[in-house]
């Protein structure tokens, strides 16, 4: 490719990354707007205006991403990025999580510094790039952009525990990043390429012993496992979820997972067969560790943190099944989990706004706040994977995909993963039902509560309820999108 072709390819690539360019420009504009607004309107009004500006930016970004749905699948800055309907779908999920996080901040009246919104924009830009990444270098750089933004977001939080949580987040993130970089260097040494769409990568790895390939894959997955909160890179999760403000935790619990799931699906197409038993083992261990540890939690956000570790394990089940049905089930599970988890953190925060979210503080609130508590109960039922909610549909799909793959391939580890996943789903009932029990079957505590009973909060809670029920009674509205990839 001569220089003219290179320049033309760059122009075409820039034209195909309009949402990402918008986020980059919006990030700079937002920082400038902060300086102007604070000086002109004062800190209090400026905070409100900047929140509105960030929310408007999220809606514009959503429109730009949706406009890419019918774009022809093609490379951007070949071979670094690839845009197809899969990437667009996951970018929509990420952008919706961002928009809802800002809505959460507005309804619960959080007072965040303007830097919070700017860093959130940078994190979303990194997530957008990660969904399109088809080169180990672009995957790594996207993860670093997300990670650095996340570290700062946690550390900037106006809470006493935020510094401790931020340091733990940084230390574990740095370690996983270094391990991943070492794994990438091994892949390059074994195959001579970092392009995950290049057949030379698969051939180069396959020509080595199973031990070498397995170690290389595990090391390379470290950064992705960290973002998914999977064992053994899960230790930071409970502390960060407890230390950071609930809207931020809500975003970090779903958006990075959505982008990383797509990366794992792309890797599944090129890595050797050793990749899938490793994924299956990590999924089973993560489900078990998350569910068992959650049984002893006394804080709602820590409980949801261990829940997210277990749920990430379920996400991997569909990918480990290694079939089109399995991949589609994993995408459905990701979308359903995003809705369910955003709802869980939002409703927990509505009942105890900006509090430590100790479980004992929720005792008896269900009798006074029936609507919010009732929907929170349904959300817990969805997380447990029971009907009639989208949680049941998503778990049914991933386990069905695994069962089908077991029949086709007759691999024993798939059967063990299936049995372990079902047993873990049963174990999770013990802690998912604890919060509904406290809400409705315990007496009201003497201390005064400051539940947010606003009409906007109830309306958003109602919309979540509709979405959860639709994912059970009419899941085809989502599966049609997924099948069109």
UniProtKB/TrEMBL annotation:
The keyword Transport is annotated on this UniProt entry: yes
Assigned protein family: Belongs to the complex I subunit 2 family.
Superkingdom of origin: Bacteria
Membrane topology: Multi-pass membrane protein
One GO CC annotation: endomembrane system
Keywords: Cell membrane, Membrane, NAD, Quinone, Translocase, Transmembrane, Transmembrane helix, Transport
Subunit structure: NDH-1 is composed of 14 different subunits. Subunits NuoA, H, J, K, L, M, N constitute the membrane sector of the complex.
Subcellular location: Cell membrane; Endomembrane system; Membrane
Reactions performed catalytically: a quinone + NADH + 5 H(+)(in) = a quinol + NAD(+) + 4 H(+)(out)
Protein name listed in UniProt: NADH-quinone oxidoreductase subunit N
């Amino acid at each position: 490719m001569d220089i003219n072709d290179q320049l033309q390819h760059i122009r075409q690539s820039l034209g195909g990354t309009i949402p990402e360019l918008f986020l980059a420009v919006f990030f700079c504009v937002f920082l400038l707007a902060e300086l102007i607004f604070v000086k002109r309107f004062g800190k209090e009004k400026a905070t409100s205006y900047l929140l509105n500006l960030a929310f408007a930016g999220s809606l514009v970004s959503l429109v730009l991403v949706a406009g890419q749905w019918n774009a022809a699948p093609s490379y951007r800055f070949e071979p670094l990025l690839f845009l197809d309907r899969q990437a667009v779908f996951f970018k929509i999920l990420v952008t919706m999580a961002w928009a809802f996080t800002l809505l959460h901040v507005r309804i619960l009246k959080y007072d965040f510094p303007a830097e919070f919104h700017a860093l959130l924009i940078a994190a979303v830009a990194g997530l957008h790039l990660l969904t399109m990444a088809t080169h180990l270098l672009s995957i790594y750089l996207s993860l670093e952009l997300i990670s650095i933004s996340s570290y700062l977001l946690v550390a900037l939080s106006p809470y006493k525990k935020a510094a401790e949580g931020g340091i733990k987040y940084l230390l574990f993130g740095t370690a996983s990043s270094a391990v991943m970089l070492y794994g990438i260097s091994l892949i390059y040494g074994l195959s001579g390429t970092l392009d995950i769409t290049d057949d030379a990568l698969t051939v180069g790895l396959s020509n080595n012993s199973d031990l070498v390939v397995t170690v290389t894959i595990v090391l390379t997955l470290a950064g992705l496992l960290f973002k998914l909160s999977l064992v053994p890179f899960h230790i930071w999760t409970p502390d960060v979820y407890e230390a950071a403000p609930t809207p931020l935790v809500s975003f970090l619990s779903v958006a990075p997972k959505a982008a990383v799931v797509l990366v794992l699906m792309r890797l599944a197409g090129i890595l050797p067969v050793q990749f899938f038993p490793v994924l299956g083992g990590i999924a089973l261990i993560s489900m078990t560790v998350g569910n068992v540890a959650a049984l002893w939690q006394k804080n709602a956000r820590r409980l949801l943190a261990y829940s997210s570790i277990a749920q990430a394990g379920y996400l991997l089940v569909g990918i480990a099944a290694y079939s089109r049905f399995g991949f589609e089930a994993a995408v459905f599970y990701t979308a359903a989990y995003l809705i369910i988890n955003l709802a869980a953190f939002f409703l927990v925060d509505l009942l105890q706004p900006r509090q430590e979210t100790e479980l004992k503080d929720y005792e008896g609130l269900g009798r006074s706040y029936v609507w919010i508590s009732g929907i929170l109960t349904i959300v817990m039922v969805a997380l447990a994977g029971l009907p009639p909610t989208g949680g049941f549909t998503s778990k049914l799909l991933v386990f069905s995909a695994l069962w089908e793959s077991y029949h086709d391939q007759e691999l024993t580890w798939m059967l063990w993963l299936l049995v372990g996943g079902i047993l873990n789903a049963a174990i999770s009932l013990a802690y998912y039902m604890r919060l509904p029990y406290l809400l409705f079957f315990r007496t009201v505590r003497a201390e005064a509560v400051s539940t947010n009973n606003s009409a906007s909060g109830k309306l958003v809670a109602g919309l979540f309820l509709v979405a959860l029920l639709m994912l059970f009674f009419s899941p085809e509205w989502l599966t049609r999108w997924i099948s069109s990839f």
